[in-house]
Write a structure and sequence with these properties.
Elements: H1 2-18, E1 27-28, H2 31-39, E2 43-49, E3 52-62, E4 70-77, H3 86-93, E5 96-100, H4 109-135, H5 140-143, H6 169-183, H7 185-190, E6 198-202, H8 209-220, E7 224-228, H9 239-253, E8 257-262, H10 265-268, H11 282-295, E9 303-309, H12 317-320, E10 327-330, H13 336-346, H14 358-363, H15 370-386, H16 394-406, H17 416-435, E11 442-446, E12 456-459, H18 470-480, H19 482-491, H20 499-514, H21 532-535, H22 542-569, H23 571-584, E13 586-588, H24 589-596, H25 600-608
Parallel strand pairs: 1-4, 2-5, 6-9, 6-10, 7-8, 8-9
Antiparallel strand pairs: 2-3, 3-4, 11-12, 11-13
Helix pairs in contact: 1-4, 6-8, 9-11, 13-15, 15-16, 17-18, 17-19, 17-23, 18-20, 18-22, 19-22, 20-22
Amino acid sequence: MGLILTALVVFLISDLLLSFFGNPGATTISYTEFNNQLNKGNITKIYSKGDAIEGTLKSAQPKPDGAKGEYTDFATQRPSFANDNLWATLQQQGIEVTATSPVVQQRSFLANLLLSLAPMVLLILIWVLLARRMSGGLGAGALGRKAPPKPVVAEAGKRTTFADVAGIDEVEAELTEVVDFLKNPQQYRKLGAKMPRGVLLSGPPGTGKTLLARAVAGEANVPFFSASASEFIEMIVGVGASRVRELFAEARKVAPAIIFIDEIDTIGRQRGAGGGMGGHDEREQTLNQILTEMDGFTGSEGVIVIAATNRADVLDPALLRPGRFDRRITVSPPDREGRAAILAIHTRTVPLAGDTDLGRLAKVTPGMTGAELANLVNEAALLAVKRKQDAVNERDLSDALEKVQLGAVRPLVMPQEERERTAYHESGHALLGMLQPGADPVRKITIVPRGRALGVTLSTPEDDRYSYTEPYLRGRIIGALGGMAAEQVVYGVITTGAESDLEQVTNIARGMAGRWGMSERVGRLTAVPADAQGAYGLSAAPTTLDAVDEEARRIVAECYDDAVRLLTEQRARLDALAAALLEAETLDEEAAYRAAGVPRKASEDASEQASGDASGEA
């Protein structure tokens, strides 16, 4: 497209230049009109080239064919059959005559060659100028050329330190040694200790891996180079490797220094896994260069590489061996005390009301990462601004938590019959959660549509859980099936409202049968991988996977029968809870237990009975 536009511009410029060689002001007239003006003696001079005649009149004449205006310069064509003795007439009137031979003077071969190649040369020159302007130079190397990388310079008073990091004390302790090494390298070298070449931070998104890397650089007060792994990948092979060389060269100049590479799994995946042409594609060349820079013949003395990833399991083994990434640190979501400390950090610039209890908020947010807690505080501040308050109070934080966990409220008007069915559905979830030993306490019930759901029952554990027993997992399945069981008990039919419940039930039941050894038929083995969404069906024999599915169906069927039986026996409590929910639309923890007639203390005592030490996830 750009070449076509360039050709069009060249054509217009050429046409404009050629127009100067003629007489753009001459008016074309007929040869008869020319003869009339000649017989009147109104012509002063003419110019002739073959049978083409141009000339000038003594006095202006109206333009022919009724056109507006007058003309003085004219152009006409003498017919080949004309026999009017024109030369004699011109001599009699003393008109100046200038003539040029119609035969073009023969040019040299070189001149003709240059004239024929001139448009093509002009197009090539314009294309080269455009290409240089877009890429900054000619050639494949110039297309990837960039300015040398510079350290990330923190603004005065805004340097990140370990005081800005909370909830991951064990990780902080590991990195403190790296900071001490950067500050006092001589003390370690006296004993022959070497500086670690690399530190790999792995963990779920939002746990603070990038923040930790900045805190290490801030504590050690050394230059900090930050780059994303995707920045090294280019269309042209070799550009990524050259950028890696430049990055490490710049870091060595100001060593000791830290290089932080985010999402290193983009270029650090296992080689030979496909996608390359002959094993020499751009990603693999970039990875090879990183391996060489970290621990090759040259080495990078005084340069520590800190990398972050969510998928440490897909990294190349050569990248993980000692001498490259000497330390692998797992950054997990914070515990209860860690969440309280993180909330305290994120509320330092947020004015809080006097009755705000961050410890209580930390208690009801198990599993949330630092990024999610920061978003929770920001949502609460936004709500306080909307409500025109001077400070963020407990209600703002609670409403923000509901918005984050349950979704925004939808302005949906449901028919009364639909509201009643939703109330019984959520009451079934909540009542079974209250009655089931070891189940998580019910925190809130609502039939106000939020997100994709028409109603929500929120249950969170009293304390952080790191292992789950089989009775606890069965209780979760029974609670998740409570909505469908309540519809069956009350209406005799079920609806599509249990879709998300069934997804949760399927994952737990399949994990019990195929991952955690809770099925006698399958045995004490793992047949389903942790990431069952991706590779399910490739990790075990087909007969074993069939047995896993059959056992998962058996577990769910038993739990569903228990849910229906319990709700049938507790029908009066189910009706009372549904009626209270229809009236109030939203019930908090205390109101929900009171409406159902279940003592909160009795529920806590029942929860303490379900203790065990079976490890796993749900």
